[in-house]
Amino acid sequence: MNNLTEWLRLNFRVCLSATLMIEAAIGLIPQLRDCNVPTVVGNMQGLEYHSAALAALYFVLSFWLILGIRTSMVAAMAMALLVLPAIMTNPDGDPALAVKITLVSVFSVPLILYGGGRYTLYEVHEALNLTSGSEDSAEQVS
User: Fold this and answer.
1) Burial class, 22, CB count within 10 angstroms (exposed 0-12 / middle 13-18 / buried 19+)
2) In Å, what is the CA distance from 21 to each residue of 5, 24, 54, 60, 100?
3) How far apart are CA 33 and CA 48, in angstroms?
4) Which one of 27, 41, 92, 119 has the minimum C-beta count within 10 Å?
């Protein structure tokens, strides 16, 4: 069962990274803004510099997620940087963007709570990482 959860977290990490990479590509390549994909940076009318900076952040976070560098913290930042601008730029709401926000939340929450799973480059065992916390405390006692 432990292998299954590690593989699920790896897949969540890849899916969240792909979502961030799509947002970054749409934000950095102006020709892609006319596509029919619901985007966070595509709805930022008149804020070209802000959307380009946000897209660059998405690209960096996507790369860190693929490598597995501090997955819990990076997933939390990615979720915040995708959800908050989407809510602020669309006060009326967009059903397609709401689906994207829901998927980002589903991908991010297990990564925030339990870490990145297999094949992480640098993973810190935080207090919320419940699988290795009991093993570490047993080693410290002995």
Assistant:
1) middle
2) 24, 5, 12, 9, 14
3) 12
4) 92
Residue type, 97: L
Q: Among 18, 112, 120, which Cα is nearest to 61's?
A: 18
What are the tokens at 137?
Answer: 């405390």
Three-state SS for 122? Answer: strand
Could you give the CA distance from residue 96 to residue 138 in angstroms, rounded to a whole number? 47
Q: What per-residue confidence (pLDDT) applies to 60?
A: 95
First and final CA of the chain: distance in angstroms? 27
What does the DSSP 8-state code read for residue 69?
B
Do you know the residue count of the chain?
142
The whole-number average pLDDT for the span 53-81 is 92
pLDDT single digits (tens) 22-50: 888 887 887 776 777 777 776 666 677 77
Of 4, 1, 58, the closest CA to residue 28 belongs to: 58
Give the integer Cα–Cα distance in Å for 74 and 62: 9
Q: Are the C-beta atoms of residues 105 and 82 closer than 8 Å to each other?
A: no
Determine contact, residues 73/117, Cβ cutoff 8 Å. no
